[in-house]
Write a structure and sequence with these properties.
- By secondary structure, this protein is α/β, with parallel strands linked by helices.
- It has 11 helices and 12 strands.
- The strands form 2 sheets. Strands 2-1-3-4-5-6 form a 6-stranded parallel β-sheet, sandwiched between helices.
- Helix 1 packs across helix 11, helix 5 crosses helix 8 and helix 6 runs parallel beside helix 7.
- It is elongated.
- The protein starts with a strand and ends with a helix.
């Protein structure tokens, strides 16, 4: 008989993306996977130590979904889903085991069989049920890359190789993506040439909602004349980003996001990280360092950046799936 796993999916798309990566990595012959949509009410803004093991912070419709028969395991994907996860364990009489993605906070940590905490958050709390991963789970798999390569290879065929994919983020926590950093990034793109190549190589570039129109326009100006396939934020066409990861020879990624560089490092391609000046938070700096220390990526300004090859492919979802198997 299959084991039943509930994934508590809320409205935080970054966390949902991580959960989807784990779902992909699980053996579907072994598990029945159920995605439970979590919608919050105003009480969800209360601290978790006040909400405790309850459904006080979720809507009536959500409460109707979270009822017996209880699953063998429930995966809580953010700190806000922790009270609901703890309620499930209590209501099941302790039968349901819990796994938490990211740190759940001190309140309720003991209720989780395992908490998968990013390496860059190490030190908040030490406990036997915490295990550390580099970065975060993602959905970039060999199967997804192969499918994307088949879909996009003809579209990119006219661009000169080697191809450099550029994945651009933007403003974070009151730290704007300044025009100066946009210019620096544009200069870095122009400098990417493999030895013995006199002409610019092809570029695959995409921006995000956080990039901002002014910074995006500067990048556009910097890459004028370079053969490129572009996907600017808000364009009404198929998102090619999986094709970028599948078909690029190397990748430039900005370090302002955790999920985005992790997805890049999941491709198995050389990843060059751009951090700019006065931009990243200390947390993001620690994250970038964890990717570099782990051999998954290199800083774009490193002397050996163009000769860098990753030591391994980043696959946190596979590690978490193995932990679930062990439970």
């Amino acid at each position: 008989m299959k084991k039943i796993i509930w994934f508590l999916m809320d409205n935080r798309m970054g966390s949902v993306g991580q959960a989807k990566g784990i779902i992909q990595a699980l053996d579907k012959e072994r598990y029945e996977i159920v995605e439970k949509k979590i919608d919050y009410n105003r009480l969800a803004n209360l601290p978790n130590f006040l909400l405790g093991k309850s459904l006080l912070g979720v809507t009536a419709a959500t409460r109707k979904e979270l009822r017996a028969p209880w699953p063998d395991l429930a995966v809580s994907i953010s700190r806000r889903t922790v009270p609901a996860a703890r309620f499930i364990k209590k209501a099941s009489g302790g039968m349901t085991k819990l796994i938490q993605l990211m740190h759940p906070g001190k309140s309720g940590l003991k209720d989780f069989s395992l908490a998968a905490v990013p390496e860059h958050d190490r030190g908040k709390t030490s406990a036997p049920n915490i295990f550390y991963i580099t970065g975060c789970p993602h959905r970039v798999t060999p199967e997804a890359l192969a499918e994307a390569a088949g879909k996009w290879s003809e579209t990119f065929a006219s661009l000169p190789r080697p191809l450099t994919a550029v994945i651009v983020g933007g403003a974070i926590k009151n730290k704007p993506f300044t025009t100066e950093n946009a210019r620096r990034l544009g200069e870095s793109i122009r400098k990417i040439k493999y030895p013995m190549l006199a002409d610019p190589t092809g570029v695959l570039i995409t921006t995000s909602r956080r990039t901002g129109a002014e910074a995006e326009n500067i990048i556009k100006k910097e890459i004028e004349g370079i053969p490129a396939y572009t996907y600017w934020w808000g364009e009404k066409k198929d998102n090619p980003i999986m094709g970028f990861w599948a078909l690029a020879d190397n990748i430039i990624a900005t370090g302002d996001s955790v999920s985005m560089p992790c997805e890049c490092c999941g491709s198995g391609k050389p990843v060059l990280l751009f951090t700019g000046e006065g931009w990243l938070t200390p947390k993001h700096e620690r994250f970038v360092k964890s990717l570099i220390d782990g051999g998954y990526a290199v800083h774009i300004d490193a002397p050996d950046a163009l000769s860098f090859r990753p030591q391994k492919t980043l696959n946190p979802a596979g590690i978490i799936a193995e932990k679930i198997d062990a439970l």
